[in-house]
Amino acid sequence: MKALPDRMNVDALRQWLPLVTLVILVTVVGIMQPVFLQPSTLLQLASDTAVLFILATGVTFVIMLGGIDLSLQSMASFASVIVALTVARLGYASFVLAVGIGILAGLMSGLAHVKLKIPSFIATLAMGGVLFSAALVTSKERSITLGDAERSYQTWITGNLFGIPNVIIVGLIVLAVAHTLQAHTRFGRYSAAIGAGEPAAYASGVKVDRQKVFAYMLSAGFAALAGVILAGRLSSGSPTLAAEMLLPSIAAVVVGGTAITGGVGSIWRTLVGSLIISVVRIGMTFLGVNIFAQNIVFGVVLVIAVAITIDRSKIPVVK
Fold first, then answer.
1. How far is CA 47 from the centre of its chain?
2. What are the residues facing 145 on neighbouring strands?
3. In angstroms, rounded to a whole number, what is the distance separating the alpha carbons of residues 220 and 247?
């Protein structure tokens, strides 16, 4: 009888701890640096969070299954290169091309995982290497700056609507679409069931392989969209444009309360986790922490978050 209350306490901790943490962080940073609470700063924070959130949203679908996608940063960087190279000729179609290539890359990762029975971290790590090399070759190992003509196609990213940056609006659209997929479709329900217990899902008639492949397609597609937005915001494409975003993206998912072992989580939790990571990042910037040292903090945060949220009953032996 004691196990049930303990389980309920863990679930309550997963649900409310991230939100409480976010409120505490915002309060502390606001007290230390009152400029942080100014509307302009908060809008900039939301704009910066949008790209991280889009990356984290895609990998949320994979983590909900109990898998992982390590190709995110390479896919985003490659997408930025595709846009930089093709937007002058293709216009808005270059964005569709970049996201389409992302979905195709996700399809190949998913098929390698489910058909060849390759662990997800190996399949996506290999795909990440392929995408990084493709970005290097197509860009000729250089950063590609967008000219004025190319930037005219980026106003849907760089512009404003009633004073709100368009990138925030894009992030909200992604939130609405992803939440609908996760909470109101069979795919979302099946993903949670697979993450909670794959053998039981198989026995219930769920087409597990199909759900997994679709999740990897979503992950890579959202990563490509994040790369498109990065290219617009930074006015360039580069093979290393998103090189430092893998760890923060995965940390955002887990810090938000989605269990790394799958079955528990939501897109809303990922949004809270993304805001936490962004507040921590801007807080460290205010304190003068070296940008390259910030990943140390994210690594520690990720370990602590996994220790709190992981379902150890699914891992009898920690390898």
1. 15
2. 236
3. 16
Residue type, 47: S
pLDDT digit string, tens, across residues 115-174: 999 999 999 999 999 999 999 999 988 999 888 778 888 888 888 888 889 999 999 999
HSE, side-chain direction, 13 A CA sphere, residue 245: 29
The phi and psi torsions of 278 (rounded to 5 degrees) equal -65, -40
Residues 51, 271, 44, CA angle at the centre, nearest 5°? 50
User: What are the structure tokens assigned to 196, written together?
Assistant: 């909670």
* pLDDT average, residue stretch 1-25: 67
DSSP-derived secondary structure letter, 33: -
φ/ψ (deg, to 5) at 144: -110, 115
**Token representation of residue 108:** 């190949």
Are 80 and 225 contacting, i.e. CB atoms less than 8 angstroms apart? no
A 10 A CB-CB count for 237 gives 31
Nearest to 68 by CA among 279, 254, 210, 226: 254
Q: DSSP secondary-structure letter at 297?
A: H
Furthest-apart CA atoms within the chain: distance in Å: 68
Which of 75, 6, 27, 84 has its CA nearest to residue 242? 75
Asked if 272 contacts 57 with a C-beta cutoff of 8 angstroms, the reply is no
Is the four-CA dihedral 246, 247, 249, 254 of positive or negative sign? Answer: positive
Single-letter code of the amino acid located at 46 = A
Please tell me the distance from the alpha carbon of residue 175 to that of residue 150, in angstroms, as a whole number: 28
Q: Name the residue among 311, 310, 309, 314 with its Cα closest to residue 16.
A: 309
**Distance, CA of 85 to CA of 146 (rounded, Å):** 9
| CA–CA dist 237, 143 (Å, integer) | 6
How far apart (Å, rounded) are the C-alpha atoms in residues 55 and 59? 7
| Listed residue (35, 258, 237) closest to 145, CA to CA | 237
Question: Considering the entire predicted model, what is its pTM?
Answer: 0.90
